[in-house]
Amino acid sequence: MHYDRLQATVAGFAGFVRQDLELHVKERALQLLKQIEHDIAANRMILPSLPEVAVRVRQLLGNADCSITALEQQISKDAAMAARLLKVANSSIMSRGNKVSSLHHAIVNLGFSLVGSLVTQMAILQTMSKSRDVGRLEGFVASSLRISSLSHSIADQFDHLDPELASLGGLLHDIGKLPLREYLYSNPEFSMDERLQFELILHPYVGAILLKHWSMPDVLIQIAFYHERIMRDSPGQLPDYIDVVLAANLMHYGTDQGRYRAFRNQPIPALQKCLRTDRLAELEGSIEDRMEMALALIEN
């Protein structure tokens, strides 16, 4: 799927746009979408970059010869990131009562997969923090961390899913809102209502572009692109990663009111596949444990 040059049509666009929006709003959004594509290509809309340490760590972990020493040397170049990794390693869920006093020890205890996920998440949170809209950013980060924790806990119920990948997908699913928000607010032609509408409609597409720009795995790009298709029904009886993040998103925001109220009392396939009634109590406990670890990524 070529997210960087997606050829959208009004008909196809309606597949992931709220059905209660008027046609002229969808058509204007489509025009804006094409303008955004053009402005990105012409470098008039600059996509944010990931911090260099995260890029290097991802490259190291992609190498079969990656060593603990090499990871330690790379992560230690960012003192704040190294300190937060130590804090996670000493959280109650990870430390098992044993104090972790060195970055080397933290990497050993956490393992390469979790270290890679945490470094990427910290880098993304660092990128988020550069947004000019500080007031809305705090709510955005809090929601992203909660949905990330929910995604991890849901995926952990299923042997065929990687909870860390689901967690990263939960953190990134709305990432397109940040550059899109900057773009919309730099254009005085849009009213406040239009900015909010276009942010809701277009953020899945812009998120997919941004994640492709960051060379993220295709599954994360798909999560960003499809997570607002609420009635999406994936093949088979087991959930995929899009189902997991979609379900986590709905669990966080609810359907009684707000943006998803149109889906209240509807049988949503992703929720039906993800929420195993025999493990709901266990799910609730694991969410709180995961939130403790997530908060260690942002608290000083």
From TrEMBL:
GO terms for molecular function: transferase activity. SUPFAM superfamilies: HD-domain/PDEase-like (SSF109604). The keyword Metal-binding does not apply. Keywords: Transferase. It comes from the Bacteria. Transmembrane segments: none annotated. It holds the Pfam family HDOD. Signal peptide: none annotated. Residues 47-230 form the HDOD domain. This is Putative nucleotidyltransferase with HDIG domain.
